[in-house]
Amino acid sequence: MENLDRLLKRISAHIFKAGGIDKPLVTKRRSRLCVGVRASHRYLIPDGVVLNVSSSGVTYFMEPGEAVELNNLEVMLSDSEKAEELAILSFLTSEIAESARDIKYMLDGIIEVDLAFARAAYASWMNGVRPIWTSEGCGGISSSGGDYLLSTDIEGIQHPLLRGTSRKHLSNIPGSNSLNSMEVDEENSMLDTGKSSKNVPEFPVPINIKVKCGTRVVVISGPNTGGKTASMKTLGVASLMSKAGLYLPAKNTPKLPWFDFVLADIGDHQSLEQNLSTFSGHISRICKILEVASNESLVLIDEICSGTDPSEGVALSTSILHYLRDHVNLAVVTTHYADLSLLKDKDSRFENAAMEFSLETLQPTYQILWGCTGDSNALSIAKSIGFDSNIIERARKWVEKLVPEKQQERSGILYQSLLEERNRLEAQARKSASLHREIMELYHEIQAEAEDLDGRVKALMAKETQLVQLELKAANSQIETVVQNFENQLRKASPDQFNSLIKKSESAIASIVEAYCSSDSLPASETDTSSYTPKLGEQVLVKRLGNKLATVVEAPRDDESVLVQYGKIRVRMKKSDIRAIKSEKKSKAAILVPSLKRQVKQSFSELNKDEEVSYGPRVQTSKNTVDLRGMRAEEAALHLNMAISAREPLSVIFVVHGMGTGAVKECALKVLGQHPRVAKYEPENPMNFGCTVAYIK
């Protein structure tokens, strides 16, 4: 091939130089390499063979005589190569044919695994939950806490197709990196389900589907565009997804029966080709559904027997529903026939449901009210669309004539009042739940602080014990030095100098011992609890705190009450609930906190001057704590100013500045000293290192 290519390039260059072609051209025609030449210059290849001609007839594609043998060899070798390839492929095909069963088994396994991963990916993308099947005996209790059993209990489900479209739309919004944290404006009327807003509804609106055990037919009534068909479709799609092993976009744990068939008649099936009107197309589909339905089927019928005379439509609908009651697991139908809602009064296997409609906004809320019957609200919807007001008013007069004694109006007022009462109770329940959650958070924080105090006391004891050991070691070292010097001087001194050397060494040792002795010791004698009066800064045992060690931060009052501090908590206790520490415990306290009493007295000296002002409980929580650690001084000052301004009057704020270089602490103290809302502040103390407490006016 290299020789053939080199030969043809040389011939093509010769033709180009002779003006036989615009540029050298080597190409392939009829599986043979050739050169291009103008028809007027074909004489340049006297022994050439014409293989092809261009469509214009200007260019000939010719095979030079020198290239014929090489082209023949190339064709022969190419045929041999193809034959060898065919032999190899035939061999591989036979090998595969022998392993066809194993390969098919492996392919089925791969398909099964791929399907499982696809279901898992879809569940993760939709934030879905796993549904469970309810048995024939309805062995499940209502998730809302009712005492009745539910065969179908799906809470907060969104239409899967609308949910997928919504999430795809949100994923295309610039700057949104996570489906769980995406939000869009009110113009799109959509918001991610993880962060619902009060002003922007969720899209699609989640609904609750709750069917009692033993119910066979559910009749859904309500306004047009109220969501009846969408809710029914949601149930059907959820049933099919559950059978396919897919998770549902719902809350908690959805429960529903196993349906062998999901049979639906939704939409208009009129056909000119099949000579079917709206009603006949509708009835023909219902007829096919009744033929194949079994006692484990789910039947969904939209606007049952509509498009015909209302009286005959009601009669035929009633007969169909009675048949479905006895032959299917569950049938859900939508209708505007009010008479179908009366079937529940005669048979408990029937259930009513209504789509909620707000008379204030004249808009549907798309929520299902189970056990209720709904009005069509046709006149209200026509008015909201912009229909002629004279026509609507005339229609209202006809309604008053058709409905004697204004029963419908009274029913509507009662229905609306019940909705308002339900909304009020739901708002109170949400407020109570929020308050309970805040109280529990505060309780857990205080409980965690109390549980941590024992560990902090042990840590302080270990630290103080280590310091005492270091001081003891240093004192022994100094005494050994004095003794060694005394021995060295004793060898060189004369006998009359012995007394002076002894006195000098004794004086040095006494000064060392005096330097390391604690001047703040507690009395070792046992104190009588009846005549015992605690002193400011003294360590005492509090009975009501489980005999925990606390510090007296305020001298006893005339009413026999004492203010003590336990960790970060200050509490006023009766004098009878406080008892002195035994001698061995007091000695430990003297070792642990030799300077604690002085610091406690200093930190509470200003507080005693202002006893008449109450700043609320002095308990540190996450809501009254400002953490400035890790910030620069300017950033810490700005953050602290904002926190002080946001605090309510007569409250306490804990400023955590840490123990580092001291720059943040100095900046924080400067801000606290200059801020007009800060009445006073307490610097850090041994019970609360790295934290300053400020009192807000």
Automatic annotation (TrEMBL):
<dbReference type="GO" id="GO:0006298">
    <property type="term" value="P:mismatch repair"/>
</dbReference>
<dbReference type="InterPro" id="IPR000432">
    <property type="entry name" value="DNA_mismatch_repair_MutS_C"/>
</dbReference>
<keyword id="KW-0175">Coiled coil</keyword>
<feature type="domain" description="Smr">
    <location>
        <begin position="626"/>
        <end position="697"/>
    </location>
</feature>
<dbReference type="GO" id="GO:0140664">
    <property type="term" value="F:ATP-dependent DNA damage sensor activity"/>
</dbReference>
<dbReference type="Pfam" id="PF20297">
    <property type="entry name" value="MSSS"/>
</dbReference>
<dbReference type="GO" id="GO:0030983">
    <property type="term" value="F:mismatched DNA binding"/>
</dbReference>
<keyword id="KW-0067">ATP-binding</keyword>
<dbReference type="InterPro" id="IPR036063">
    <property type="entry name" value="Smr_dom_sf"/>
</dbReference>
<feature type="coiled-coil region">
    <location>
        <begin position="415"/>
        <end position="480"/>
    </location>
</feature>
<dbReference type="InterPro" id="IPR002625">
    <property type="entry name" value="Smr_dom"/>
</dbReference>
<dbReference type="InterPro" id="IPR027417">
    <property type="entry name" value="P-loop_NTPase"/>
</dbReference>
<keyword id="KW-0699">rRNA-binding</keyword>
<dbReference type="Pfam" id="PF00488">
    <property type="entry name" value="MutS_V"/>
</dbReference>
<dbReference type="InterPro" id="IPR046893">
    <property type="entry name" value="MSSS"/>
</dbReference>
<dbReference type="Pfam" id="PF01713">
    <property type="entry name" value="Smr"/>
</dbReference>
<dbReference type="InterPro" id="IPR045076">
    <property type="entry name" value="MutS"/>
</dbReference>
<keyword id="KW-0694">RNA-binding</keyword>
<keyword id="KW-0238">DNA-binding</keyword>
<dbReference type="GO" id="GO:0019843">
    <property type="term" value="F:rRNA binding"/>
</dbReference>
<dbReference type="GO" id="GO:0005524">
    <property type="term" value="F:ATP binding"/>
</dbReference>
<dbReference type="InterPro" id="IPR005747">
    <property type="entry name" value="MutS2"/>
</dbReference>
<protein>
    <submittedName>
        <fullName>DNA MISMATCH REPAIR PROTEIN MUTS FAMILY MEMBER</fullName>
    </submittedName>
</protein>
<keyword id="KW-0378">Hydrolase</keyword>
<dbReference type="GO" id="GO:0045910">
    <property type="term" value="P:negative regulation of DNA recombination"/>
</dbReference>
<dbReference type="GO" id="GO:0016887">
    <property type="term" value="F:ATP hydrolysis activity"/>
</dbReference>
<dbReference type="GO" id="GO:0004519">
    <property type="term" value="F:endonuclease activity"/>
</dbReference>
<keyword id="KW-0547">Nucleotide-binding</keyword>
